[in-house]
Amino acid sequence: MKFIKSLLIVLSILIFTGCDSFLDLDPQQSIDTNKVLTNAENIELTLVGTYPIVRDAYGQNMFHFSELLADNGEFDFRGTFSQPRDLINKDLVDNFSWADDAWNLAYDAINRTNIVLDYKDVLAESDQDEISGQAMFLRGLLYFDMVRFYAKPYVAGQANNQPGVPLVLHSNFDVSKVEYPERATVDEVYDQAITDLTLAKSLLGEDSFYANKYAAAAILSRIYLQKGMYEEAAIEANFVIINSGFDLAEVPFKAYNNESNGIEDVFTFQQNNDDNIGESNAGMATFYASTDATGRSDFQITNVQMDKYEPGDLRGEVQVDLGNGSKIGDVKSIYYLGFGSNSRGGTFCAKWLDFKTNLTFVRLAEMYLTRAEGNFEAATVLGATPLDDINKIRERAGLDPLGALTQAAIRKERKLELAYEGFRLHDVKRWKESVGTLAYDDPTLVMPIPKREIDVNDKLTQNEGY
C-alpha cells in the first residue's frame, strides 16, 4: 500500500488553518471534491498528512498540558515563554494560546480523518480496511484526549453528562452548509472513542509503519483504565503483551530516543530532521533537553521528583560525567546534568533528548503497568499476577522484587516509570488525587474552550472559571 511504504510527510489535500472556527472553512482553501476525492492516492496522502498534525498536537501542546498542569514542584521552569509558566501556575485564560493551538490541530486532524472515511470507496477494496482503520485510530485517540483536557473528568459510577467536546463525524467542504454542534456529553465522547478504536482494532493489521491493531488495543486500555473499567483495561493490555511480539528494552534508557521503532515501542509518531525545522521534536526536546545541540534548558527537574526514586533505581540515576565537550550520544541515563551552550546547570530529563528521534507514545512497559492495575483492582489474574507484572518493571529498573503488592505500590511504579510522558494529570484525576491544594476536579485543571470557537458558535458553553 502506497501510504504504508512511503515515508513522505506531505501536506494534506486540504488546509483548514486561518479560519474563524474549526468548522468554518475558507472557500479559497476548499477543493473540488468531484475532481480530487475520486483519486485514491489523494485519500492516502490525506491520511499520511494527518499523522504529523496529530504528532504536533501532542508534542507541542497536550503532553505539556498533562505534565505541567499536574506539576506539584517537580519542575523548575527557567524559560521565557509564558505558556509553560501559566500551566504550572494554573493561571489560564479563555484565549490561552496553547489551548487554542491544540484544539485547532485536533479538529483539523479529525476533519481529515473524516475525509478519509467519507470517501474511502474510491480506494482499492484491498486497501479500505487498513486505511479506514488508521483514520478510526486517530479520530478515536483525539476525541479521548480532547475530552480529558477540555472537560470535567469522567467519574466512574456517575452519569457523566457534563459537557465534553463537539463530535464531528463527517467532513464538510461547503461553507454554506457548515454545522455548529454543541458539546456532546463526556459519556458520549468516551463512547465514540471506544467505538472508533474498537473498529480500528478489528480493521488494522499486525504490522504497519503507523498504527496497528496493538496500538488500537493499547489506547483502548487507556480509555478503560480512565473509566475505571479495570477488567476491560487488563484484557486489552494483555492482548498487546501476549500477541504483539514487543518486549521491554534491556534497560530503561534504551526505551527512548529511537530513530526507528524500538523493541518496546507499541506506537510512536515518526519524525526526522526534516520534520523538525522550527519545531524540534514536536516541542518536547525544545523544552526538556539541555545538551550541546538541542533544547532551551527550560524544564529543570527538581529534587521533589528525584527523591521519589529508591536507591539503585536506574530510572532515577543522574549522569554527572558530562561537560561542555560532551555530545548527545554521551548521555546514557534518563536524568543528567545539563551541558552545552544553553545549559543553566541543574538536572534534566533525557526521555526527550534529540530533535530527530521519534515521539514515544505507547511503550510495552505501560501495558504491564495497566495489566497489573487492572487485574489488581478487578481481582482478576489475566495473563500474570499483578505482583509479577510490577516486579518485571522493577527488575528492569535494577530493583529488588516486591514480596507483596498494594494499591499504593502499583501507583508509585506507574508514576516513576511513566514520568514526563504525558500521564500525570490523567492519573491524578482518575485516582482522585490532588495537585497541591487543588482537588482532582478543580476547574483550573481543565483547559478553556477557545474563545474564538465560542464567538463563532453560540451553542458552545465555556468551562467553569473562564
From TrEMBL:
- Could you tell me which species this protein originates from? Labilibaculum manganireducens
The family database entries (InterPro entries) matched by this protein are listed as: SusD-like_N, SusD_RagB_dom, TPR-like_helical_dom_sf
Main localisation: membrane
> What's this protein's name?
RagB/SusD family nutrient uptake outer membrane protein
The domain of life for this entry's organism is: Bacteria
In the record, which residues are listed under signal peptide?
Answer: 1-21
Q: Per the record's keyword annotation, is Membrane included, yes or no?
A: yes
Keywords (alphabetical) are: Cell outer membrane, Membrane, Signal
Instruction: Write out the similarity annotation.
Output: Belongs to the SusD family.
Record has Signal as a keyword: yes
